[in-house]
User: Fold these one by one.
Assistant:
Number 1:
Amino acid sequence: MIHLILQSLFTALGMFWSILWALILGFAISGVVMAFVPKSKMAAILGKPKPDEIALATFFGSVSSSCSYAAASMGRTLFQKGAHIIPSLAFMIASTNLVLELSLILWIMMGWQFVVAEFLGGMILVAIMSILMMLFAPLADFEKKRKELNQGSEPKGDNKGDGDDDEATSDPKTLAGWRDAARAFVGEWQMIGKDVAIGVIISGFLMTFVPDSFWQSLFLRSGSAPDETLNVWRLIENAFVGPLVSMVSFVCSVGNIPLANVLYHGGIGFGGALSFIYADLLIIPLILIYRKYFGWKLAAWITGIFYLSMALTGIIVDLLFRAFGLVPQSSEIMPVMDMTFFQINYTFWLNMIFIIIAVGLVWLAKTGPKPEEHDCCH
């Protein structure tokens, strides 16, 4: 037992080492955006559920934070400051599914096909969510909720990723401005570090302790002979079960990529793995935060439409990739357990470079005058 526990922790440490440079790069870019782009200006041009404004919200999200908690907080802030609920939700989806560090980590752990599928699927996910919200959601109730929020009657948000009153006034031409960006970088680590740690530790223990037979019983699998009916049912079942697994895993954002690797080798299909990755906005703690922000009724609408959109997106992207023969076999993707983590290769040198950059940013964040109230971005 002690040997298995140590093996699990070693695997978790190795996974973290493999993705460290990508995390630092992504958080640094996010810090720059958070420091120099005011939320109120974004909200001012996202006031209607028009395609161009939804696309703009998706772009803003893609260059923003990858932390699911921060995405929920910023989405609520945009909504309260005047953005329509649909662009606000599009921002949340993009900021957890279309960010740079997620793509880099997907490439490292799942292969280029998943990177392309995640990017394409993220845009499809935003489109499906927008259509479902327009057709079915009580948009008038969301507008009433905005008035309540602006009258100061909203419940206080979760302490993770909150900070709704701050405005980005930093000047990129000054040292003080870059100090704010460095503090935003540190804030990203403080918010998402625990989730990344939980994600890789859970994945390490699952790979060591949970046999493949468990995952094979959880997800429908194709038989040895071609059976299109079974494959269709497998695709549907996997795509709808994937987000449920994500919901109870309590792992958000980049932290669920190692677990996606485990699930893919355990038997979940391509579309199911994608819907699992998309569903980092559906973990139970976040659903409770939606309830704090919007009340149970509107939180249920957000959760239900997110769930349906993520499952449908997984199915659509799976069918598209299957049509072009791009669905990777699990045998083509190295299991995390088989990866050689610690060696002198490009990962080692990239980590060395970005660790130096991270140390410099932390030093910059700790020097100079302290901000009067709180960090610039969260």
Number 2:
Amino acid sequence: MSGGGPGAGTVAVHCGRWGTSLLDALRRGLPDADLVASGTPEAASADVLVTLADDGPAVAGALTPSVRWVHILGAGADGFPFGVLGDRVLTCSRGAGAAAIAEFVLATMLAFEKDLPGSWVTEPPDAWNTAQLGGLEGRSLGLVGLGAIGTQVARRALAFDMEVAALRRSSAPSPMAEVTVVPDLAALLGRSDHVVIAAPATEATVHLLDDAALAHVRPRTHLVNVARGSLVDQDALLRALDDGRVARASLDVVEPEPLPAGHPLYSHPGVFLSPHISWSSPRTGRRTVSLFAENLDRYRNGTDLHGIVDTGAGY
């Protein structure tokens, strides 16, 4: 699918919660582009809008009639107001944070197997040179989703000599010969010591991991969610943690974000909760900007854009 054509002009930037820091970062990465803040008089004639997708009403307000192409500075399109998009082209920075997120996932799996931070000591322990730690070698990993993030997680897991299986939405074969594609979620959960959720948030994936699904997990499973909180029924997860089906849940995403004070996920001993930071690394920001820069060149030249969002599927 092609963009607008030669001579693409002003790019409006909807900064949202990032404020002017987002606009400043884009200007540093794209010194030759005409970047202006959305909502200003200069943005009224912009034909490109750059935005995040987490504030639908505000994004809808930034979609002026002149805009022909919208780019989301993120991998997910959930929260975007598809109903007001019309015939505009929508793209996203798919894959920008995949490497950083995959590293975070491996860190959570190693922390689970090596009992971190529980293995650290601050005074003489009852026993020295004695432990019963696990390892990743020979363990099985189940990936819910085999897109950019899932693929990056698989590559790293294979380097640890793990057995890797995946569930994917399409019927396409695995892009990696060492990764087995399984037919359904129950089959994936039943064979996996570590389950990593890396699928997009759509209407079809709301509470994908519910009581019925969690009934199929192996005893003492480690569940990692780096996708969106909506994919997990958190009440069902708490029940699975309490009865031991899930030994630990490493959650970088929850619903809602942030969780209200006093929510049981904050204090549950089987939950390791981080505030949606798995994407964070020095390279992620640079990659996000470079992906948009490449698309901007394509748009100006009238060639096909990368990261097209299927608005029907929601990602």
Number 3:
Amino acid sequence: MHAVEAALANPRRACHRLLIARGAGDDIAAAIDRASGAVPGRPLSELVERAEIDRLLTPGAVHQGVALLAKPLPVPALEDVLRDPAADAAVVVLDQATDPRNIGAVLRSAAAFGALGVVVQDRHAPPLTGALVKAASGAVETVPLLRVVNLARALWALKEAGFWCAGLDPAARRTLAEAKLEGRVALVLGAEGRGMRRLTRDTCDDLLRVPIMPRADSLNLSNAAAIALYELNRRRR
């Protein structure tokens, strides 16, 4: 519901068809109608059987009785995003993250903590599907998912734009809090289990860790990103 509501309220998003299942609930229908009415030219909602939405979505898709057919948003290039002049800008870089729900959750955290964007390598990252958008809970309307061909080159572009590239590595000597990062920061996270690739790790300016209890093996990728973004913001507020 939140993904559909945010898309309808975004004037940059072209929306073509809006479906609401019978029995979805008055609260959901009212919220969707408010979002749709806030932008001129939105499609009128169609009341359909839940089975009709199930038929239109991919098998196994979980929904709340709401579906929206919309045109993809234009995606800016990394260079365009890096022109933002903010002295304390943050960017999240994901190395070989493949789970759409994890990437969606990272986008949600990036929106919550004001990151400029989330960078992924185009060859390994999943497409912007309904599952990813649903996990992002509306964040795709405000935080771009930036696809690059070469992640190491993207890190060098970040450095040239004044970003300090901090890779998160559970074996790092210092914690993120101990580093006391300031200015423009790119937080670089590797895929769960495999971590960052060697070239990605070597291109980072520093390797830092999020401290966890010894009995815990690791953090979920999206949880690690949320904690790191919170720590970064905590020092700046």
